[in-house]
Amino acid sequence: MSSNRGVVYQGAGKVQVESIDYPKMVDPNGRAIQHGVILKVVSTNICGSDQHMVRGRTTAPEGLVLGHEITGEVIEVGRDVETLRVGDVVSVPFNVACGRCQMCKEQHTGVCLNVNASRAGGAYGYVDMGGWIGGQAEYVLVPYADFNLLKFPDRDQALSKIRDLTCLSDILPTGYHGAVTAGVKPGSTVYIAGAGPVGMAAAASARLLGAAVTIVGDMNEERLAHAKAMGFETVNLSLDASLGEQIEQILGTPEIDCAVDCVGFEAHGHGNAHTQEAPATVLNSLMEITRPAGAIGIPGLYVTDDPGATDAAARRGSLSLRFGLGWAKSHSFHTGQTPVMKYNRNLMQAILWDKLPIAKIVNVTVISLEQAPEGYRAFDGGAPRKFVIDPHGMLKAA
Prior knowledge:
- Keywords: Metal-binding, NAD, Oxidoreductase, Zinc.
- The chain is α/β, with parallel strands linked by helices.
- It has 16 helices and 17 strands.
- Helix 6 packs across helix 7.
């Protein structure tokens, strides 16, 4: 049997690379399947959602193999797979989806009904998402392969653009979903909360969709400097000036057309309160600055259980939202996991035809599998980078 190594969660603040089982054609319940493929992992990314678990802010169990952002090469094909062959290079949507249920048929693959016994929706290497083994590893199983996998049309072309294409598994479709659901269109003024990789992907998506002005807000000066270098307007939320005041300095008005929350439940207060955790801060501030009848896209992660929260309500996922303000302004809100398959093929084309230099915009930084714990520490420290793990040295060779 072949060997395998992966990044394993060992408790709050700790991950390490360990020997793990080589993937088998079985589902998390141990039932044999023939609709899957085994991938040699070409690239696998560290995500901010992974950091929530590693910080101990979820109920993730120790021993969980991490990683839901996967690009790979097919090396074994199940008997029932019809459209894929050994040697194909593919992007793996982070959603595990069956392709058969009502949700999948309606393109709501983030809430598939058949891949998770405890709730709607599945994902690789993530707490409460069905028990599917994560892909921050050398090899991984992908079920329902004909439905789930996006095959790149040309292997050599794909490998030459792999630093961009690796973003298709999650952050680029997630940022794009946030922009689309916020109603970004040509001429829009857009505010993006968060200058991390998803925030930068949302900003890039707003630009692709024709936004007139895209403003990115954060407290991390290094991340803001990178956003500004990529051509976006920025606001520094650690300053005493309010968000509306800083937006008015840019636009001449304190309101924007569209807003996207790319921060989620570990948000902090603004100004003098920026060191204190305030999980509803982003959503409340977005309602304040979004014009009447505007929309707010919320791809940022919110959880049902947060054991590290500062108050009892937040530990149960209950936030002190000014929902009455949103109601009074006729705001639309869109939440939930991104249905990656709704967008990834078109976004792939944008990358292949040089319309979307996403690796540059999110600052992709390639590391080895053994460097993964160091990558987690740097990312947690606010480095303005998207860390991409190269388990077999294929990105380095490309």
